[in-house]
Amino acid sequence: MVRTWRKNEDILTRMKKTKCAMRSGSAQWPNLEKSVAEWIAEHRQNGYVVTRNTIRKEAMKWANTNKEESRDFKATASWCSNFLKRHDFVLRQKTKIAQRLPSDLNSKQTSFHSYVISQRKQKNYALSNIGNMDETPLNFDMVGNYTVDVKGTKSVL
């Protein structure tokens, strides 16, 4: 044991005084964890909410399609917690829901305005007959208040 302590001396001296051991361990299913970590990064990049349950479902889906590599894998809550620690993911509370505007918004607006003006002139519509209406999509999914994100990043949630 003393040899191990000497080997890890610099790590042990930098460790918090309240921490009792180096228990992070290595992944038993590294390919599965790599695939799930990439899936999380992709979903967060696209602005989707990623919860612990969706991580566990994605891990089980990967395990079922790759049975040879993932024998005896069970996506337990403790596996999920350890996975999040190993890959520096944290659970964050959503602060707001934001929608990004399209990059070509100005050209779309100009195009739409010119279309409306041309139709008005062509069909001889009075301004009082033109109205503005906005359609708002409704999402019936009950989105949770928390999402998984990379530790130390500031993202719009």
Overview of the molecule:
This protein has 157 residues and is mainly α. It has a domain at 25-96 and 144-150: Homeodomain-like (Arc Repressor Mutant, subunit A, Orthogonal Bundle). It has six helices and two strands; from the N terminus they run H-H-H-H-H-E-H-E. Strands 1-2 form a two-stranded antiparallel ribbon. The longest helix is centred in the C-terminal third of the chain and has 19 residues, at 105-123. The two termini are 45 Å apart. The model has no long low-confidence stretch (mean pLDDT 81).
Keyword list:
157 residues; mainly alpha; Arc Repressor Mutant, subunit A; two-stranded antiparallel ribbon; 2 strands; 45% helix
Number of strands: 2
CATH superfamily of the domain at 25-96 and 144-150: Homeodomain-like
Shape: elongated
- How would you write the strand order of the largest sheet? 1-2
Helix-strand category: mainly alpha
H and E order? HHHHHEHE
Strand content: 5-15%
Please identify, by name, the CATH architecture of the domain at 25-96 and 144-150.
Orthogonal Bundle
As a percent range, the share of helical residues equals 40-55%
Unreliably modeled segments:
none
What name does CATH use for the topology of the domain at 25-96 and 144-150?
Arc Repressor Mutant, subunit A
CA radius of gyration: 26 Å
Average pLDDT, rounded to a whole number, is 81
Number of helical regions: 6
Main beta sheet: strand number and arrangement?
A: 2 strands, antiparallel
Oligomeric state as shown: single chain
CATH hierarchy, class of the domain at 25-96 and 144-150: Mainly Alpha
End-to-end Cα distance: 45 Å
